[in-house]
Amino acid sequence: MIPLPPPMRAALDAARAAADKGEVPVGAVVMFDGRMVAVAANAPRALHDPTAHAEMLAIRQAAQALGSDRLEGCDLWVTLEPCAMCAGAIAHARVARLYYGADDAKGGAVEHGPRFFTQPTCHHRPEIFAGIGAMEGAALLRDFFAARRP
Predict the structure, then answer these.
(1) In the prediction, which pLDDT does 48 show?
(2) At 33, is the pLDDT very low, low, confident or very high (cuts 50, 70, 90)?
(3) What are phi and psi of 149, to 5 degrees?
(4) Active site residues
(5) 3-class DSSP state of 3
(6) What's the rounded mean pLDDT across residues 84-101?
(7) CA distance linking residue 72 with residue 74, whole number of Å
(8) Integer CA distances (angstroms), 72 to 75, 100, 119, in order
(9) Are the beta carbons of 18 and 43 closer than 8 angstroms?
(10) C-alpha triplet 5, 144, 46: angle, nearest 5°
(11) Nearest-CA neighbor of 124 among 73, 80, 83?
């Protein structure tokens, strides 16, 4: 088995930490110039904020760390296919490359649902690399939801 790249490993670690806090296990990392500038996990329950998805929090942290609302040259690594809200934020932030793990047939907006980045109204399209760490990300989600079902 090929080892996962360090940013995806860090995103999966963040997702596990989210699960330990009762949040849906999704983690995200922003890389710039070979260094991690943001690591975040889902936190809508803890923050009482429905927009507190891992991607949104990582984008906000990276923007603060880099002192810019544009994350040009940045890579976003996330354990689950981004939803429409997060895809919109990725486009607005001008993220250069999106790496994601597990597909999300119900809520995803990259390869599923609205396929956000293929829409003519989308003004920025990152390079997209899917399936990196997909098995681990999907297993975290499956285990999380299985433990909550009767």
Answers:
(1) 98
(2) very high
(3) -95, 145
(4) 55
(5) coil
(6) 98
(7) 5
(8) 9, 18, 20
(9) yes
(10) 90
(11) 73
